[in-house]
């Protein structure tokens, strides 16, 4: 039973990690419909930036994350301008390949700057808390709480603010959007900037429980794509459900089946869900 | 009767988009369907052609029950349609569009194509001939190499008809074929429809342009809020107070007067 | 020497980008350091002076890319020796090195299959990992350990280690618990796998993958309250792990001996040069030191054979060359013998045990 | 009509001639021949990807996996089970086709992004099975000594050039099938589906069935490519079924030109040669290659062959227009509506 | 208010408009007639910035707008209900409408007023306010498109065949409503196939043929022009 509870919390924190990493992608892929394969690379750059501010520039942890988010937002915007904006009328496959090009570029660039070494980042959030007889680190608790808070704030932002709605409008009809006075370019940039900032926060929080290295984003990215599809594209509640489902499924499969099962479970769940509901768990009413 | 529709219904959530509609389409005639916006006309077409599954009711075509058959089977059985927002293969040329219609019905397989069997060559030739004939017939031959997305509205509408005809249907359902085209053109479109009937294709027509309806239709089905409120000859329908109230409005006389611009129709065999 | 006579190209194909980039960098560092030293000393073959050069291509750890690169190095750069630091690449290169092209493979992988293929143009640089099995088991069983947990990385090499250890541990009368191996590089959070392994209450756990991730796995286990021992596969290095986790977490573990602890004549100098010329951010490890030795060995073999172009002759000269290599190149268990199979045997190889106080003890390991 | 055909015909002939004489030109550069050989096996798989993506518009990310199934069927059957090359080749095609068919039943229920991610998951599962099912696939240890084709009469396939020509035959077949698709009713049906499934089914095209067939055939080609790859390489590992491979295949296709006949081979060889050329920049080559890839996609979104076809098409149009200037025939042009999402295919 | 001078415009390689001159006065209803493909929509798209003009000038309230992007043009006070509608199909009718006010950022009460006006005009939309716009009937979608343009309370309203797909009764209602909006002071630029009815409301009209203005004049003059009568009035 303690094993179960322990794994439950492990799954929960893993789910939190997934959710945090998924948020930006939900915006960019789910809402703007750009399958940004470089999202994982942005996550990685976010981790390096946090690391840089923390160690080389010596600023405090929270500030380091904030600065990294700021810089990464700039990078995200640059990426939108240089890579995706020229492709706005091209099919999504082209976005994918261009994003892959951007991903290669970022991997190489980071390796050129920081080398291929593994790095470890210390978080000031230390110690563990005992919940139901199991030990959970504060860092993990922080991740889960941040994930939930950010997701709620974002849902609110998208649904309730004019800005949020403009993102949806641009996704659905660029011409229509510009005809009501929305600047589609600005919205795209805003979305990319926001997505990048969020993924930097995710990376900054997650980095201390893992390592920093140039390909660290690859693993998480595939899972994150799975999550937002599992939940239903563009659905933020879907991303929450998807993220925590996969986190828990992985923890449980690892415990009660095998480690290999833990690694594949995400994809098996995805396939099962889509086989039954081809448009994901929580989908909007109308398909285009 | 070429087609019999009985008690057809469709609900979306709580909304009865089409409710218990029955009517017939007689062979060789033009059956028009009119009604206010949102009356369920397009939905009715979607039900007949298998794009939606009816919640109740039946559709019989050539004495065979086709209720709920998927769209492609309905099309193969001989029911073609156009869409309200004109749908074409936008990035292909007009000729390629019509060729696609021919290809849809062709029997040849990849094996035929790979080995260039006589059947394949025969079909290729036939498709080409048919395409040119249909473009000529619909009067858009000169646009054959234009990309569909770039030709004027009215050419698109005609191309959509040619594409539908390429599948060699017995029944052609047209959803607002004359929307957005000039009066002048509308009249010529009326002629085209008449020629289609003359080819032996039965036509079902949804349209808001009463000039067209009144001059062409052999019988008219009137829908309002999903229900049938009238079904009969143009004369019957025109004078039906419920139709006037729900659809035509008091100014309806004005629109029918435009009938003059259109040739006298050939009398149908009666509804 | 100036090497007016020409150049000898040592080919390398390894991961320079992607997940294996660091590993590839370390290998290349060893080769580069050796080459610099060799050029300093001068290389004379058949009376002519040569400059040695390294030409390295990126294969992203992919077997077929490695083979293509090797062929390219041989054809375009006239390399007669190509170093390949991963089992897959070595196997793929072995498909062509005696037929479509001719070149000697400097195989840096501890997978024994490499020398079992009767490929006449291969020599295997590191000790086979099978060498560690017996001493590790003895060490922990002497301490009373019975239950072995499995928590290694799920790469080829990890799986083979695990299979070997499972057999040997059971052979020695111990109990092997369920296999919780997972891919260290593909899992975002180790906590679950560690928790599963711990739930069976092992006395000792087999871990191992890249040092850094291994350190994290060990740390996670300690955090979850595990107090038993660790057997650490030879890929992970104590000297690196110490930088990634509180060294106390590593207490009560056995693994390969840190390079810096070897008493070979060249060790100290190489440690110093590594820090100076490569990086101070990470310690010198076996990836670097073993390849360093191997380059010296193979160039010496060229001198002995009197040719730098004939791979067969070079291969045949290896055993003799092993005895003649300069002391600076002897750093971490320099081979005394090169077997016909292509194994490099050193009788000074040792393993390390970090006891519960955090002190290291070394024990002999016999290469098999 | 004739004119365009001949321009394209000449282009195709040039490529064919280059491929035919490559072994003679590359006599001293075996490694480039090796790159070509690998490239051709990939290109065959790319032709497969082209069927599903180019002709029905569905992005499959399972093709690396299908390729892997071909690789391992060939690899395992000719080693552990000692089958002959030819029977293993047949088995590989059959197996991938069957797997493709079964996968299609589920995958094709989804569309667009969902289809892409569904197939990506499928590809990853295939990869996991291959890389973890030790007892059967030998996992990361890989498979050694995959057989080359048995000699046929005087043809000795252990000679790289001979094997190369054998591959060329398969490649030509794949290209020919694609060509036939482009100009036949079967291809028209698929292209119709790609543009609008609703419209396609309204004219009687069985969308589900056609997509299913396309996906199945597409998987079969990937398997064929994989099987040939395994034999050409001799040693195989799980890498040859990875998701990275899928993206490489996709990149080859997009650079060459989706839905074109020559795109797959031109794109594949071009990118591979580009990769080789950039090797000199070592680890940092992607600092250059990344932007190069992005630029290719941005400036030739229809791919190189697609772009060339478009140019010949314009040229033909302009001539036609010039011939009847008097009539003031409207000119062709590409869609300018910012909402147009798909690029032209011809 | 709106001055189009010597405008040439087109797509990639086709020229559609040739030296078009058009003026839309404030508070008046200006009608553009023309056969299919004569360039009406292209003209409107160029004015609202969806298509870039090649030469010539467009000024609105004495400021050049030919270089502005369409979202800036909306802010300047021009609303365009385009051909093809360009709604946001997955958003609710109400969201579509409120987004129509995006450029304006009206206060809550103003927004409510504008919404009421649209709902008064098209009562069915009130009923369907929370339904996704993409699931409406064709005519209902057309109503949303017009309504959305009205929501920005523009100075100049450009309507491209607003009656397309509308039932005859509604067509009249819509034209009536357009006239009403116009009489409240909003300038209107209208393309409409139902020339008969439209000319009745319009002040001034232009006839376009093959991208050129071939005729212009007061609506009443056009109504009596034999050419117009033949081509557009079906007389
Ligand atoms: N997919 C759907 N989901 C929900 N409601 C729908 C859907 N499709 C149609 N409706 C509703 O059903 C009703 C009938 O729509 P339909 O498109 O059949 O009308 P119509 O008679 O063709 O009108 P129009 O003349 O405007 O084209 C409308 O109220 C519409 O909102
Ligand atoms: N996106 C486009 N690309 C190329 N040509 C186009 C495009 N859109 C329209 N055209 C062409 O421009 C010309 C003018 O079209 P436009 O749509 O402006 O005419 P219109 O008067 O609005 O006609 P309609 O009554 O059919 O709406 C036509 O010949 C048309 O084929
Ligand atoms: C420890 C190393 C010598 C093993 C190496 N990672 C390999 O691929 O075989
Ligand atoms: Mg309708
Ligand atoms: Mg228009």
TrEMBL record, chain A:
Its main location: membrane. Keywords: Amino-acid transport, Cell membrane, Membrane, Transmembrane, Transmembrane helix, Transport. InterPro entries: ABC_transp_permease, BCAA_transport_permease. It is a multi-pass membrane protein. The keyword Metal-binding does not apply. GO terms for molecular function: transmembrane transporter activity. One of its GO terms (cellular component) is plasma membrane. The chain crosses the membrane at residues 12-31, 61-84, 96-116, 137-158, 189-213, 225-249, 255-276. It is found in: Cell membrane. GO terms for biological process: amino acid transport. The keyword Nucleus does not apply. Belongs to the binding-protein-dependent transport system permease family. LivHM subfamily. This is Branched-chain amino acid ABC transporter permease.
UniProtKB/TrEMBL annotation, chain B:
It comes from the Bacteria. The keyword Nucleotide-binding applies. GO terms for cellular component: plasma membrane. InterPro entries: AAA+_ATPase, ABC_AA/LPS_Transport, ABC_transporter-like_ATP-bd, BCA_ABC_TP_C, P-loop_NTPase. Keywords: ATP-binding, Nucleotide-binding, Transport. SUPFAM superfamilies: P-loop containing nucleoside triphosphate hydrolases. Pfam families: ABC_tran, BCA_ABC_TP_C. GO terms for molecular function: ATP binding; ATP hydrolysis activity. Residues 249-271 are annotated as: Disordered. PANTHER family: CONSERVED COMPONENT OF ABC TRANSPORTER FOR NATURAL AMINO ACIDS (PTHR45772:SF9), CONSERVED COMPONENT OF ABC TRANSPORTER FOR NATURAL AMINO ACIDS-RELATED (PTHR45772). This is ABC transporter ATP-binding protein.
Automatic annotation (TrEMBL), chain D:
InterPro entries: ABC_transp_permease, LivM-like. GO terms for molecular function: branched-chain amino acid transmembrane transporter activity. GO terms for cellular component: plasma membrane. It comes from Nesterenkonia salmonea. It is found in: Cell membrane. Pfam families: BPD_transp_2 (PF02653). The chain crosses the membrane at residues 37-53, 60-77, 83-106, 113-130, 163-181, 213-237, 249-274, 286-305. It is a multi-pass membrane protein. This is Branched-chain amino acid ABC transporter permease. Residues 337-346 have a biased composition (Basic and acidic residues). Residues 324-346 are annotated as: Disordered. Keywords: Cell membrane, Membrane, Transmembrane, Transmembrane helix.
Automatic annotation (TrEMBL), chain E:
InterPro entries: AAA+_ATPase (IPR003593), ABC_transporter-like_ATP-bd (IPR003439), ABC_transporter-like_CS (IPR017871), BCAA_Transport_ATP-bd_LivF (IPR052156), P-loop_NTPase (IPR027417). It comes from the Bacteria. Gene3D superfamilies: P-loop containing nucleotide triphosphate hydrolases. GO terms for biological process: L-amino acid transport. Residues 2-235 form the ABC transporter domain. One of its GO terms (molecular function) is ATP hydrolysis activity. Transmembrane segments: none annotated. Keywords: Amino-acid transport, ATP-binding, Nucleotide-binding, Transport. Belongs to the ABC transporter superfamily. This is ABC transporter ATP-binding protein.
């Amino acid at each position: 039973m303690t094993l179960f509870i322990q794994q439950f919390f492990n799954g929960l924190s893993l789910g939190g990690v997934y959710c945090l990493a998924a948020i930006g992608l939900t915006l960019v892929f789910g809402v703007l419909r750009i399958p940004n394969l470089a999202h994982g690379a942005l996550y990685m750059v976010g981790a390096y930036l946090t690391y840089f501010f923390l160690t080389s520039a010596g600023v405090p942890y929270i500030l380091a994350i904030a600065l990294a988010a700021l810089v990464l937002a700039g990078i995200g915007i640059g990426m939108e301008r240089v890579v995706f904006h020229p492709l706005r009328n091209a099919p999504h496959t082209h976005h994918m390949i261009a994003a892959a090009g951007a991903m290669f570029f970022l991997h190489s660039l980071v390796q050129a700057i920081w080398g291929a070494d593994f790095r470890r980042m210390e978080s000031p959030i230390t110690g563990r808390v005992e919940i139901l007889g199991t030990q959970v680190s504060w860092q993990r608790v922080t991740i889960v709480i941040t994930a939930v808070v950010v997701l709620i704030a974002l849902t609110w932002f998208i649904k309730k603010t004019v800005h949020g709605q403009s993102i949806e409008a641009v996704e659905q009809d660029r011409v229509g959007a510009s005809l009501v006075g929305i600047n589609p370019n600005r919205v795209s940039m805003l979305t990319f900037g926001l997505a990048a900032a969020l993924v930097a926060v995710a990376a900054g929080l997650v980095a201390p429980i893992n390592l920093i290295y140039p390909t660290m984003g690859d693993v998480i990215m595939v899972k994150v794509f799975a999550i937002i599809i599992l939940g239903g594209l563009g659905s933020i509640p879907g991303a929450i459900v998807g993220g925590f489902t996969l986190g828990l499924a992985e923890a449980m499969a690892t415990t009660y089946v095998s480690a290999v099962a833990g690694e594949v479970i995400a994809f098996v769940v995805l396939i099962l869900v889509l086989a039954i509901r081809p448009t994901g768990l929580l989908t909007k009413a109308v398909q285009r | 009767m070429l087609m019999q529709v009985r008690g057809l219904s469709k609900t979306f959530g709580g909304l009865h988009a089409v409710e218990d509609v029955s009517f017939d389409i007689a062979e060789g005639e033009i059956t028009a369907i009119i009604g206010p916006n949102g009356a369920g006309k397009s939905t009715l077409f979607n039900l007949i052609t298998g794009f939606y599954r009816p919640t109740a009711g039946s559709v019989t075509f050539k004495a065979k029950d086709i209720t709920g058959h998927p769209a492609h089977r309905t099309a193969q059985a001989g029911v073609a349609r156009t869409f309200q927002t004109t749908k074409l293969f936008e990035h292909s040329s007009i000729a390629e569009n019509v060729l696609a219609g021919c290809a849809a019905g062709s029997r040849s397989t990849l094996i035929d194509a790979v080995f260039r069997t006589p059947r394949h060559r025969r079909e290729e030739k036939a498709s080409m001939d048919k395409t040119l004939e249909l473009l000529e017939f619909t009067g858009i031959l000169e646009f054959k190499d234009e990309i569909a997305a770039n030709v004027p509205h009215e050419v698109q509408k005609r191309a959509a008809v040619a594409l539908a005809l390429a599948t060699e249907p017995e029944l052609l359902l047209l959803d607002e074929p004359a929307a957005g085209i000039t009066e002048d053109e509308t009249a010529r479109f009326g002629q085209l429809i008449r020629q289609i009937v003359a080819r032996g294709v039965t036509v079902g027509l949804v349209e808001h342009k009463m000039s067209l309806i009144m001059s062409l239709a052999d019988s008219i089905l009137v829908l309002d809020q999903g229900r049938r409120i009238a079904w009969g000859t143009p004369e019957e329908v025109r004078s039906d107070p419920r139709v006037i109230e729900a659809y035509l409005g008091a100014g309806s006389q004005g629109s029918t007067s435009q009938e003059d611009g259109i040739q006298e129709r050939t009398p149908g065999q009666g509804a | 020497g100036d090497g007016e006579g020409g150049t000898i190209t040592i080919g390398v194909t390894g991961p320079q980008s992607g997940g294996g980039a660091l590993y590839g960098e370390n290998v290349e560092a060893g080769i580069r350091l050796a080459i610099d030293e060799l050029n300093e000393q001068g290389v004379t073959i058949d009376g002519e002076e040569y400059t040695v050069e390294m030409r390295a291509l990126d294969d992203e750890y992919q077997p077929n890319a490695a083979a293509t690169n090797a062929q390219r190095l041989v054809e375009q750069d006239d390399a007669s020796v190509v170093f390949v630091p991963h089992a897959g690449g070595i196997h793929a290169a072995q498909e062509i090195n005696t037929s479509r092209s001719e070149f000697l493979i400097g195989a840096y992988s501890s997978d024994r299959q490499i020398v079992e293929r009767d490929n006449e143009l291969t020599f295997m640089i590191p000790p086979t990992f099978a060498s560690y099995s017996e001493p590790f088991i003895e060490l922990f069983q002497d301490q009373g350990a019975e239950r072995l947990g499995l928590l290694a990385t799920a790469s080829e090499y990890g799986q083979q280690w695990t299979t070997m250890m499972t057999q040997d541990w059971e052979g020695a009368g111990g109990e092997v618990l369920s296999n919780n191996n997972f891919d260290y590089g593909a899992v975002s959070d180790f906590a679950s796998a560690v928790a599963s392994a711990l739930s069976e209450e092992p006395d000792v756990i087999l871990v191992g993958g890249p040092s850094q991730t291994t350190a994290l796995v060990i740390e996670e286990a300690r955090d979850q309250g595990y107090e038993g021992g660790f057997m650490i596969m030879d890929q992970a290095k104590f000297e690196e792990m110490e930088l990634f986790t509180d060294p106390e977490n590593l207490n009560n573990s056995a693994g390969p001996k840190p390079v810096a602890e070897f008493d070979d004549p060249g060790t100290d100098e190489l440690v110093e040069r590594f820090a100076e010329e490569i990086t101070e951010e990470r310690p010198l490890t076996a990836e670097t030191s073993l390849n360093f030795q191997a380059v010296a060995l193979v160039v010496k073999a060229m001198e002995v054979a009197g040719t730098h172009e004939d791979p067969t002759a070079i291969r045949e000269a290896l055993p003799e060359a092993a005895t003649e290599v300069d002391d600076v190149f002897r750093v971490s268990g320099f081979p005394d013998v090169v077997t016909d199979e292509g194994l490099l045997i050193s009788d000074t190889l040792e393993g390390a045990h970090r006891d519960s106080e955090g002190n290291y003890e070394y024990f002999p390991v016999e290469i098999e | 009509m004739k004119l365009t055909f001949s321009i394209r015909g000449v282009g195709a002939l040039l490529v064919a001639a280059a491929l035919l004489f490559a072994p003679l030109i590359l006599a001293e550069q075996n490694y480039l021949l090796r790159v070509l050989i690998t490239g051709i096996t990939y290109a065959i798989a790319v032709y497969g990807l082209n069927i599903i993506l180019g002709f029905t518009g569905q992005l499959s990310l399972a093709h690396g996996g299908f390729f892997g199934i071909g690789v391992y069927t060939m690899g395992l059957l000719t080693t552990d089970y000692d089958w002959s090359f030819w029977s293993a080749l047949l088995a590989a095609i059959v197996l991938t086709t069957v797997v493709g068919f079964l996968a299609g039943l589920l995958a094709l229920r989804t569309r667009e992004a969902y289809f892409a991610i569904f197939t990506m998951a499928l590809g990853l599962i295939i990869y996991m099975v291959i890389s973890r099912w030790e007892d059967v696939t030998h996992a990361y240890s890989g498979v050694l000594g995959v057989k080359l084709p048995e000699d046929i009469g005087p043809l000795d396939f252990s000679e790289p050039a001979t094997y190369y020509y054998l591959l060329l035959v398969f490649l030509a077949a794949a290209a020919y099938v694609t060509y036939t698709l482009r100009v036949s009713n079967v291809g028209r049906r698929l292209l119709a589906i790609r543009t609008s499934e609703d419209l396609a089914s309204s004219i009687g095209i069985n969308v589900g069935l056609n997509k299913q067939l396309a996906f199945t055939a597409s998987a079969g080609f990937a398997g064929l490519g994989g099987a040939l790859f395994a034999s050409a390489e001799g040693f195989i590992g799980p890498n040859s079924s990875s998701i990275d491979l899928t993206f490489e295949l996709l990149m080859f296709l997009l650079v060459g030109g989706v839905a074109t006949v020559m795109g797959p081979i031109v794109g594949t060889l071009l990118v591979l040669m580009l990769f080789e050329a950039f090797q000199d920049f070592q680890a940092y080559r992607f600092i250059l290659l990344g932007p190069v890839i992005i630029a290719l996609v941005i400036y030739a979104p229809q791919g190189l062959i697609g772009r060339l076809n478009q140019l010949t098409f314009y040229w033909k149009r302009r001539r036609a227009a010039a011939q009847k200037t008097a009539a003031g025939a409207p000119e062709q042009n590409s869609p300018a509506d910012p909402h147009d999402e798909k690029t032209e295919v011809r | 208010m709106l001055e189009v001078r010597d405008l040439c415009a087109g797509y990639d390689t086709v020229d559609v408009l040739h030296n078009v001159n058009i003026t839309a006065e404030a508070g008046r209803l200006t009608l553009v007639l023309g056969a299919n493909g004569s360039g009406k929509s292209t003209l409107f798209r160029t004015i609202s910035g969806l298509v870039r003009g090649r030469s010539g000038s467009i000024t609105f309230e004495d400021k050049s707008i030919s270089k502005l992007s369409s979202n800036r043009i909306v802010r300047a006070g021009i609303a365009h209900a385009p051909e093809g509608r360009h709604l946001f199909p997955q958003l609710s009718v109400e969201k579509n409408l409120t987004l129509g006010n995006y450029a304006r950022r009206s206060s809550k009460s103003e927004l409510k007023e504008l919404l009421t006006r649209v709902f008064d005009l098209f009562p069915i939309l009130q009923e369907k306010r929370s339904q996704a716009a993409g699931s409406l009937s064709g005519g209902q979608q057309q109503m949303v498109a017009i309504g959305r343009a009205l929501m920005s309370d523009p100075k100049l309203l450009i309507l491209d065949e607003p009656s397309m797909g509308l039932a005859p009764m509604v067509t009249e209602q819509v034209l009536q409503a357009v006239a009403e909006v116009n009489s409240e002071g909003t300038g209107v630029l209208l393309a409409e196939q139902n020339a008969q009815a439209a000319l009745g409301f319009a002040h001034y009209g232009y006839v376009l043929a093959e991208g050129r203005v071939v005729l212009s004049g007061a609506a009443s003059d056009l109504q009596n022009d034999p050419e117009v009568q033949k081509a557009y009035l079906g007389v």
